[in-house]
Amino acid sequence: MAQRYYIVGNWKMNGMRTALPEARAIDRAAQRLPKVEVAVAPPVTLIAAMREAVENIGIGAQTCHSAEKGAHTGDLSAAMLRESGVEFVIVGHSERRADHGETDAMVKARAEAVQAAGMGVIVCVGESEAQRDAGEAEQVVARQLAASLPGSADRLSVAYEPVWAIGTGRVPSIEDIAAMHKRLRSALAQAYGEAGAAVRILYGGSVNGNNAADLLSVAEVGGALVGGASLTADAFVPILAAAA
Ligand code: PEP
């Protein structure tokens, strides 16, 4: 069966309403590329406006709290995000882990809350540069994954994002990506049995229009999580085209 790549833009803390024309341009490109599943996770402030502006791309959030409601100032529950118009949530991004002290246990609880609210979830994992240099990348990431995964594989994707490759212009070798994705695939089989085979494993970290085709051709790479190069249609659409 032909693979349908899942290409997700993570806008992080970028984008005012003036960015909506970029979302519309990405949406028009996605309409021309039905073989690619395209999604964008804008800042929460843009979710409602983006919902109005696009028809062909999924809309997601970049994190959520695991509780349904309560005294958690500034946080949003999965149900609130769903009501605001998103279909999926990214959890455990390394910037959340670093900036907000999100642990594997918190990531797992958040992922389960997202699934319970009926949405897709993308669980992010990845090693630091020191861990890669020490030859520990695969063990570290497999451990992180096992502790971060929700109990069910329902609507689950995993994003392998080496921390040192995010926003740096550096990417691991094709061989290292292939080895890591193979390891993650077997970890998913261990966690979920046969259901693990349906979980998409995305690569993330300095993906752009020049390297996307090579990265997507690696075995077990089912798509990409894209930061900087997802902010404009000029940068993002060539990645979508490489996935078509
Ligand atoms: C990310 O932060 O998820 C990411 C992959 O960023 P970039 O593409 O900018 O490296």
UniProtKB/TrEMBL annotation:
Q: What class of enzyme is it?
A: isomerase
Locations listed in the record: Cytoplasm
Pathway where this protein functions:
Carbohydrate metabolism; erythritol degradation; Carbohydrate biosynthesis; gluconeogenesis; Carbohydrate degradation; glycolysis; D-glyceraldehyde 3-phosphate from glycerone phosphate: step 1/1
> Can the keyword Plastid be found in this entry's annotation?
no
Q: Which residues cross the membrane?
A: none
Per the entry, what this protein does is:
Involved in the gluconeogenesis. Catalyzes stereospecifically the conversion of dihydroxyacetone phosphate (DHAP) to D-glyceraldehyde-3-phosphate (G3P).
What the entry lists under HAMAP family is as follows: TIM_B (MF_00147_B)
Known partners and oligomeric status: Homodimer.
**Which family does this protein fall into?**
Belongs to the triosephosphate isomerase family.
Q: Please identify the protein, giving its name as recorded.
A: Triosephosphate isomerase
Q: Which gene encodes it?
A: tpiA
